[in-house]
């Protein structure tokens, strides 16, 4: 294998596939990055066996030469060192050559690195995904749907299925749901599907987080292929594979109350900042709990009390307060996560009682909601 | 105590004195920030008993009202919470009032915090420093002198005196020296002193680091007062006290070789980047050691070898190579620290043998030097 390539473009691809590589793997070859030089270009692969990422650099693009492949071939190099080295090479052009028994030379200007590589034949094969049914989402919408749900997955392994986000496709609509059983985030959107494809799978939250990081903010479509135990996201020059979580995702539809006894309309930013301030003292207490009460037709009060440190109260103007008066306590962190996930300057909150889950939605937008379970404080 | 004040100015002063406050102190009142409202303005104090910082906010400055003092008085408030609260208050104007038995109310807009304060009478008194002899340095020069030496102090407590920087004033010159016994950094500059003042003290490295962080990059003079066991840095509206380290600083003058058997001239940035690349692999080996050898009249080679991972070699052009040929090994980290500390685009390195300390100086600048002890590798 021997080729020269543009450093910046190559370094970006290395960064991308690095996101799949864990230094704590028990399979030594997976600490490496696989490099394949073909007649068409350079392919980089990284994997931790849960997530696999493949980035392709064509040898030419828009009449520009990016890579000059002198000899096709493959090698596996220690990912951490290789990434550091590529970033710090002195010139814009770098040359990589496998000389003998996986010894690999990396040259740029006067700098020459000689790395001990690994046998590419021993690198595991990526999951084979049949070119079957595909659905498409614009990249920026995909990233928004991930951002608005993935934070709500469980971080505890006691119910592993809850560490993933439930993706359901039916009737041309994708619904993403995450819950850690204390709160729930839901986002839906229309998707382009082949025929009447239906899916109901659970994608690990970690995979979606990594996927989000390597996708650019464009409106280019991402193709999504779902199989029994894998999902593949296919963007330009990039393949992102993740295993799916096994098991059935709980039916969350019953959790979301249909009616409402109290309804508030609030400015998202003002309310978020008031919760943030109240949580300064709440953080010390257990559970980071703040209290919300209605104090009139157009005013609510956010408060928190931490006996050793002090207390805080703040009045926040509400565009409207409808229904029964209410005092309710909840986690400030969950509320802030939910408010940050919602787009839009105005939100409404619908309560059905001090001990029942409540629902936060952007005004005039039914595509997303956040649900939070209150905390009993008395 | 009752006053209102501009939030941004107040928050900056809180940030400054916070640098002296440790959450791990064994003296509970020192986790607090002391606030004194006087007829002249607001004084904030923080201390960990090694470092004490006092920041003063005048009630008026340049015909602008900054603080409105309604009632003089004092209070001590938990520094960490107070800092978070002040930063997050909603409006540009904030009001602080002690109501009863150290209960303190902080108001801004609709937000009201009620903090449990501590008795200001129990706050320790700052060291009393007689208005005696003073010497002056422009702030930016003081910061440069700290930056160019403090990184070389020892981080080990086996010889506590080496955790400080030796400050010597004699013949109108300030000399700052730091060493951890593997390398040494020296910087000197002329200072304005009263009469023929002479000092020889050791200032804790941590104190100088904190001082550097809170001083602005101006040419305004900082007044420095040195007593038996304290040093006071006095800038505009800011007093910074540090205790001195007890004991005698070793005489380092014998360490610096007067002669030279090999002399190199190098471009600082090119050499630094080559060392940085070589250290990528060296980091894995013990000691982070790189090797330097002469390979001709105008070329040196930097290399490093880590049997498990690979090796790296790089040739660097030297403006001149004079004297005996030499192969020498040293810590890449120490070399990078030294090169980053030196100002100037060209440096020279003077060696007196492969096992003797060598000296790095900027070209045409005798005010500073860096000394490094080589590492034996064979």
UniProtKB/TrEMBL annotation, chains A, B:
The record's subcellular locations are:
Cytoplasm
Predominant location category: cytoplasm
- The record lists the membrane-crossing segments as none
**UniProt GO cellular component terms:** cytoplasm; DNA polymerase III complex
Q: Which CDD domains does the record associate with it?
A: beta_clamp
Q: Which organism is it from?
A: Bacillus aerolatus
Q: Which GO terms describe its molecular function?
A: 3'-5' exonuclease activity; DNA binding; DNA-directed DNA polymerase activity
Return the protein name.
Beta sliding clamp
- Provide the alphabetized UniProt keywords: Cytoplasm, DNA replication, DNA-binding, DNA-directed DNA polymerase, Nucleotidyltransferase, Transferase
Lineage at the top is:
Bacteria, Bacillati, Bacillota, Bacilli, Bacillales
What role does this protein play? Confers DNA tethering and processivity to DNA polymerases and other proteins. Acts as a clamp, forming a ring around DNA (a reaction catalyzed by the clamp-loading complex) which diffuses in an ATP-independent manner freely and bidirectionally along dsDNA. Initially characterized for its ability to contact the catalytic subunit of DNA polymerase III (Pol III), a complex, multichain enzyme responsible for most of the replicative synthesis in bacteria; Pol III exhibits 3'-5' exonuclease proofreading activity.
Q: Which SMART domains match?
A: POL3Bc (SM00480)
Source species, domain of life: Bacteria
PANTHER family per UniProt:
BETA SLIDING CLAMP, DNA POLYMERASE III SUBUNIT BETA
Q: Which family does it belong to?
A: Belongs to the beta sliding clamp family.
- Summarize subunit and interaction data from the UniProt record for this chain: Forms a ring-shaped head-to-tail homodimer around DNA.
